[in-house]
């Protein structure tokens, strides 16, 4: 898509009056955000209660392929194929099938405001959730790429900020290709959803379910703007990454949490299963979602002994 | 007064105090169900007392004696059982299920996320565990 066409498209999307701003405009905005070639360097940070995390990254998108160079690994994204690794070695995951994306009707687009960012003409927009601000974006007029993304918690405070500090449209860099060889390649096949997990969770829809390691399942939920996966497996040891992390309570139940710049991770056990939730959903959404999922619980001392001795 | 309950049995057995017995008697005047209960208790006691005495064979007494345990030994046995339980919990291997590998979960989640449109320029996780 040419720059001129994109510019016209974003102008058409962003210059609608408030009253007419509906799902269609926001859907277009989100789909256009994933198009266009650019290169940038950004910073992403997250503050969640007493936890905070930040990282820098470098991102480049060219001819439908994205490269993200993070602090500890690189990602190459092309369609439904994700390659993870570095120049030395890569492994890949590919989603075999997935349900179509749809945006919850609780989100609408606020009134666009002309601004500048990184010395470029840009447009600031607010995404509203049931009429209240949930995210603020600054979008480059020429490329429709979001230069700044602020996500707000339930009290209107920014809890996650992603901002490009260097930005170049259509840099004309050499063509990147996906790695030719992978250490291993995993194809994610759809599977039956767990009967213990809901099909709807406070505005989030169970979109797809996939087989997960150890005979477990991955249940992928999305409301079109945010998403999370719930990994369910037979009860096992708590992953070491969660040891000593923040414990937090929801309606008297206790969970463990890890906050990273782009995601929140939550772990808990029920008497028979272990769960890990990972996603970019806001804190107030997380609290509401957890109340719809299986509650944490422990085994009685005799069941613990029996399971330890006899499995 | 509430229904007499245990006081009725105590009265029939002669174990109630004078005040308790008087209380029961006053209550019985106005309570048909307690009078009925008193009658059934009295009948049952009479039936039991009317049973013939039978000599218990000595072979039946020995096992019964063996079950008699001195309190100190009972405490000791309970302690041993508790220690065994604690030892079992401590020594036996812990959770038997698979430990979730967060790297794999992160990659699976990312692979699904990037298929959908998104507002962030960072479509992959950055700085995840």
Chain pair sharing the greatest interface? A-B, 83 and 40 residues
Shape of chain B: elongated
Total of DSSP H or I helical runs spanning 4+ residues of chain A: 4
Alpha-beta content class of chain B: mainly alpha
Task: Please count the helical segments of chain B.
Answer: 6
CATH architecture of the largest domain in chain A: Clam
Radius of gyration of chain A: 21 Å
Instruction: Write down the overall mean pLDDT of chain B.
Output: 70
Major β-sheet annotation of chain B: none
Can you count the beta strands of chain A?
21
What structural class should be given to the helix and strand makeup of chain A?
A: mainly beta
End-to-end distance of chain B: 69 Å
Terminal residue distance of chain A = 58 Å
This entry's quaternary arrangement is heterodimer
CATH superfamily of the largest domain in chain A: Lipoprotein localisation LolA/LolB/LppX
- % residues in beta strands of chain B: under 5%
Radius of gyration of chain B: 35 Å
Give a short account of the largest sheet of chain A. Answer: 13 strands, mixed
Model regions low in confidence, pLDDT < 50 over at least 5 residues of chain A: 1-22
Strand percentage of chain A lies at over 45%
List the helices and strands and how they pair.
The complex is a heterodimer of chains A (311) and B (129).
Chain A lengths: L2 H12 L8 H11 L4 E11 L2 E12 L2 E5 L4 E5 L2 E5 L4 E6 L11 E3 L3 E5 L2 E10 L2 E9 L5 E7 L5 E12 L15 E4 L11 E2 L2 E9 L3 E7 L4 E8 L11 E5 L2 E7 L4 E6 L3 E7 L3 H8 L10 H10 L1
Chain B lengths: L5 H7 L5 H13 L1 H18 L8 H10 L3 H21 L10 H12 L16
Note down, in words, how this protein is organized.
The complex is a heterodimer of chains A (311) and B (129). Chain A starts with a helix and ends with a helix. Chain A is mostly beta strands and 311 residues long. In chain A, the strands form two sheets. In chain A, strands 1, 2, 3, 4, 5, 6, 7, 8, 9, 10, 11, 12 and 13 form a 13-stranded mixed β-sheet that branches. An eight-stranded antiparallel β-sheet of chain A has the order 14-15-16-17-21-20-19-18. In chain A, 13% of the residues lie in helices and 47% in strands. Chain A has four helices and 21 strands. The longest helix of chain A is centred in the N-terminal third of the chain and has 12 residues. Chain A folds into two domains: 167 residues, Lipoprotein localisation LolA/LolB/LppX (outer membrane lipoprotein receptor (LolB), chain A, Clam); 122 residues, Phosphorylase Kinase, domain 1, CATH 3.30.200.100. In chain A, 39% of the residues are buried. Chain A is globular, with a radius of gyration of 21 Å. Chain B is mainly α. The model of chain B has no long low-confidence stretch (mean pLDDT 70).
